Structures are given as C-alpha cells and as structure tokens.
Amino acid sequence: MTIPTLIANYKEKQTVTQLTKTFQTLSHAYQMMQAEYGTINTWGLITTGTIDEETGKPIYDHSAQKLVAERFKKYLKVAKTCEYDKVCNNFNYYNLSGEKLSDTGLIPSENADKREAFPEGMFFLNDGTFVAMATFFRGTGGLYVVLPGSKDATLGKTRFYFYFNSKGFFPRGMKGDEAMPFETLCKPGVGQGAYDGQGCTAWVIYNKNMDYLHCPDELSWDGKHKCD
C-alpha cells in the first residue's frame, strides 16, 4: 500500500477507537442521569420548536437542551462550556460529500433571534471532544460530537450523531433508524445536504470500520459490512 493509503487507514482506525470510547463515556453518563433523575420522559422537557399561535412561526425553546446538558456534565469531565458573544470552536462544518455547511464564529448574543443560540448546550470534554445538544422532540433528544484533534467538523468523518430516550443512549444509523438511516444518510453524494453523513455513527461503532468511504454502494446492515 502507498503511504497516503497507510495514513488514511491509520486515521480511520483511530476514529473507530475514539468514537467507541466517546460512545461508552456518554452512554455511561446517560445511565447515571436516568438512575438519579428517572427516565427522561418524566423530566417535563419541552419540544425545541413550538409554533406561535398568532404568527404561525416556530418558537425555538432550548430549555430542554440546556437542562439535559447540565445533567450530562454532572457525570462527565468537562473542560469548557461555550458562552454567548464568544467564539465557541474553530471548526468549519462539512457534510460527508465535502459540501461546506457553515463557518465557525461568534456565538450569538442571548437575545439573538437564532435557533442555534444556546451555548450552554455546547461544551468540550477534558480529552478535547466537543459535545453539542441537538433538538428535543416527542421524548427523544439528540446530540453530536466532534472528535478530539479535529480541524474540521465533517459528518461521518469527525462529527457524529447520537440520540437518547427513555430506553437508552444510541448511535445514529442503526438498523431500523428511520430518522437517520445508514442506507441513505451515510453515502457520499446522495444529495442530502446538511443530513449527508448523519447516519454513519452506528456503522463505525458496531462494524469497526469506515468502509462507507470506499465502497458505499456495496454496504448495508442486511448485507456486506466491509469492502472486499
């Protein structure tokens, strides 16, 4: 194999190890949360986007993410929590196909009319892993991580999604995951935009490879789990 191939293989194996460790860390923290506070469906959490009856426009209530983040942090080794009016991280965000989604920058002020304005739900662990709460809807919450040492947050490569509910903490893209299926959201170039790459997490953790980067059309949960 050529040197670039060897380097790529090493980086993929490193990602498998890092992501598996992160999953174990977050899953354990989540178990501890539910042991102390009860199952998450009893916490009275509010759906992220509700509709204003007068205007018909969504109202982004981030109280659920803030509460869940605070309870997660109680069982994690946290180095830094993001703040309003400050730069939170230095990532540029990409999907699995390499399309740039957004730039890093200033976290909006607390009064900014932006759905992303909840830095209390974004924090760094001591090992450098970045954790960010996602939406909360119908008893199910979500978060994504950017693995330590990453210069960019690329879905399916350095940025990975998880979800959690009263049954436990799970990686996205598992067999039967209708919201983020592996078959359509872990194949470069399928035209899913910001979702392209969100369904890769479970594949990396359970199959111990990132072969969807090399032979995506050959892989499925019911078929091949690695390239030839």
In brief:
With 228 residues, the protein is α+β, with helices and mostly antiparallel strands.
Describe the structure.
- Strand 4 (about 95) and strand 5 form a beta hairpin.
- The chain has helices spanning about 5-35, 65-75, 180-185, 200-205, and strands at about 50, 60, 80, 95, 100, 120-125, 130-135, 140-145, 155, 160-165, 170.
- It has one domain.
- The longest helix is centred in the N-terminal third of the chain and has 35 residues, at about 5-35.
- The radius of gyration is 18 Å and the shape is globular.
- A 6-stranded antiparallel beta sheet has the order 3-6-7-8-10-11.
- The protein contains 4 helices and 11 strands, in the order αββαβββββββββαα.
- By secondary structure, it is α+β, with helices and mostly antiparallel strands.
- About 35% of the residues are buried.
List segments where confidence is low: pLDDT < 50 over at least 5 consecutive residues.
none
Radius of gyration: 18 Å
Oligomeric description of these chains: single chain
Average pLDDT level: 87
Distance between the termini: 15 Å
Percentage beta strand:
15-25%
Q: How is the biggest beta sheet arranged? A: 6 strands, antiparallel
Into how many domains do the coordinates divide? 1
Number of helices: 4
Percent range of helical residues = 25-40%
Q: What sort of overall outline do the alpha carbons produce when their principal axes are compared?
A: globular
Strand order of the biggest β-sheet: 3-6-7-8-10-11
* Strand elements, count: 11
Secondary-structure element pattern, one letter each: HEEHEEEEEEEEEHH
How does the helix and strand content classify structurally? alpha+beta
